[in-house]
Amino acid sequence: MESIEQKKSKEKKDKKESKKSKKKESKSKEEKKSKKDKKSKSEKNDKERKSKSELKAPNEIFLLNKKTKLLEVQLKDKTNSLNNNDLDNNNLDNSLNNIDNFNISLKNPIHTLYYHTGSISCLSILNDGRLISGIAAKSIIIYNKTTFQPDLIIKEHKSIVNCITQLNSGILATCSYDKTIKLFNIKGNNYNIIQTLNDHTDYVYKIIEIENKYLVSCSHDKSIIFYLKDNLKYKKDYQISTNGPCICIGQIKENEICYSEYKDKICFYDINERKIKSSISNIDKSSLSPFIIISKDLLFISGENKISIININYYELIREIEVSNSGWINGVCMLNKNILFTGDDEGIIREWKIEEDNLILISKKENAHNDCINTLLNIGNGHIASGSVYSLIKIW
Questions:
Q1: Euclidean distance between CA atoms 347 and 278, whole angstroms
Q2: Which strands sit side by side in the sheet containing 292-293, from one edge to the other?
Q3: Cα separation of 184 and 173, whole Å?
Q4: What pLDDT, on a 0 to 100 scale, did the predictor assign at position 370?
Q5: Between these two residues, 333 and 381, which has the higher pLDDT value?
Q6: Which of 47, 64, 146, 360 is least surrounded by CB atoms within 10 angstroms?
Q7: Which is more confident, 164 or 9?
Q8: Which 8-state DSSP code applies to residue 304?
Q9: Ramachandran angles phi, psi of 173, nearest 5°
Q10: Continuous segment of H or E residues that includes residue 174
Q11: What pLDDT is stored for residue 314 in this prediction?
Q12: What digits encode the pLDDT tens for the residues 94-137?
C-alpha cells in the first residue's frame, strides 16, 4: 500500500504534468492561430494585389493603345514625307508613287491663280518645288510654294511660251513661238540668261533633255534639232527633217524618242542608229498634250474625243478609247502609277484608273474651268494644277 506521502507526491506530479500539458496545448493553439492569421493575411494581400492588377490593366491597355496610335501616326507621317519627297523629284519613276486615290469630282480647288493676262500654255515644276507657268502673253511666272503668289516674272520671249523644263544641271530651258530656245540660270527670285538658241526658222513647240547629254527640240519648220551639252551651254550637233510640222516630242526608251508629224502620224526614232524604227499613221494627237508613258510597255496619246494607247515594243496601236463631248484632250498628267488625269476643251477634268492596257473612268469634274483646259501637271503632295485658255491656274 502506498503511504500518504507517496500519494501526495504522485498527485503533485500529475498536477505538474497536467499543467504542463495544458500549457503545451495552449501554445499549440496559439501557433495554429498565428499560422491561420498569417495565411489569412497572405490571402488578403494576394486578393488586394490581384484587385489592384485588375484595376490597373485598363489603364495599361489605354496607354498601350495610345502609344500604338501615336506610332501609327508617326509611321503615316513618315510615309507621307517619303512619298512627298519622291513626288518633288522630276524623275518619272520617282513621281509615280503610291498616293491614295481620290475623286477629284468631290474636291474644290484649294487655290485659284489670277495673275495672268493671257492663255496658260504650259506648266512645270522646279527642282525646289515651285510651280512655273508659260503664258501666251510672252511671260514666265515662278510662284511661291506657300502663297502661290508670283516670286519671279520673266519677260524675255517675244511670243507665246510653249514649253518649260528644268534640266538636270538646274538650268531652265524654254521655247517659244518666237522661234528661239532660251536657257536661264535661276537663283531664288533672280535670274540671268545663259544662252539663246536661234537654229529653228519657225515656232518651237517642245524641248526635252536626254541622258543629261542632249537637248532636243521640235518645230513647225519640219525639223528636230539635237543640241550637245558643252559645260553649261549647248551647241547644235545634228538635225533631222520631218514630213510635216513637228508638234510634240518625248523620250520613250534610253536611246529612243517618239515625235508627231502634225496631228496624225507618230514616228519612233533611234538616237544611236539615227534612223526611224517605225511609225503609225491616222492617230489624232493634240498639239498641247505630252506623250505619257503609263507603263514600261505603253504610250498614252490624247487627241480629239479620243485616247490612244500604243505598245512601244511592237509599235502597235492596241486600244482607242472614245471620250464623248470632250473635244481636244490637251491636258494630261499622272498622279501615280495607277491614276491618270485628263483635261479637255469642255473644261472637264477626268480621273482614270490604269488597268493593264486599259483606262477605266473613275470620276469627272464638270466645269473645272469655264473654258478649254490647256495643261495639267502633277505638282506633288497629292495635288494637280490645271491651266486654261482664259488665264486661270487652279490647284486641286
A1: 35
A2: 292-293, 298-302, 306-311, 316-322
A3: 6
A4: 92
A5: 333
A6: 146
A7: 164
A8: B
A9: -110, 135
A10: strand 172-176
A11: 94
A12: 333 334 445 665 578 989 998 877 889 999 999 999 999 998 88
Q: What does the pLDDT read at residue 180?
A: 97
Transcribe 51-82 into DSSP letters: HHHHHHHHHHHHHHHHHHHHHHHHHHHHHHHH
Torsion angles phi and psi, residue 12, rounded to 5? -60, -40
16: confidence class by pLDDT, cuts 50, 70, 90:
low
Give domain 92-117+288-396's CATH superfamily.
YVTN repeat-like/Quinoprotein amine dehydrogenase (2.130.10.10)
Helix (H) or strand (E) segment spanning residue 124: strand 120-125
- Half-sphere exposure in the Cβ direction for 265 (13 Å, CA): 13
CATH of 151-282, one of 2.130.10.10, 3.90.79.10, 3.30.70.2190, 3.40.50.1400: 2.130.10.10
What pLDDT, on a 0 to 100 scale, did the predictor assign at position 213?
86
Distance between CA 235 and CA 352 in Å, rounded? Answer: 41
Asked if residue 333 lies in contact with residue 375, where contact means CB atoms within 8 angstroms, the answer is no
The residue written with cell numbers 524604227 in the block is: 277
Non-local (6+) Cβ contacts of 55 within 8 A are none
Pairing assessment for the beta strands 181-187 and 161-166 based on DSSP bridges: unpaired
Identify the residue whose cell numbers are 484595376: 55
* Cell triple for 4: 500518504
Cell numbers describing residue 362: 473613275
**Is residue 23 classed as helix, strand or coil in its secondary structure?**
helix
Rounded-to-integer distance, Cα 361 and Cα 326, Å: 13
**pLDDT at residue 210 tops 60:** yes
Measured distance CA(139)–CA(129) in Å, rounded: 20
- Residue pair 162/175 in contact (Cβ under 8 Å)? The answer is yes
Bridge partners, residue 360, by sequence: 353
Strands 339-344 and 150-154: unpaired
Q: CA 140, 332, 302: angle at the middle one, nearest 5?
A: 120
Return d(Cα 333, Cα 341) in angstroms, integer.
Answer: 5
* CA pair distance 295, 311, nearest whole angstrom: 10
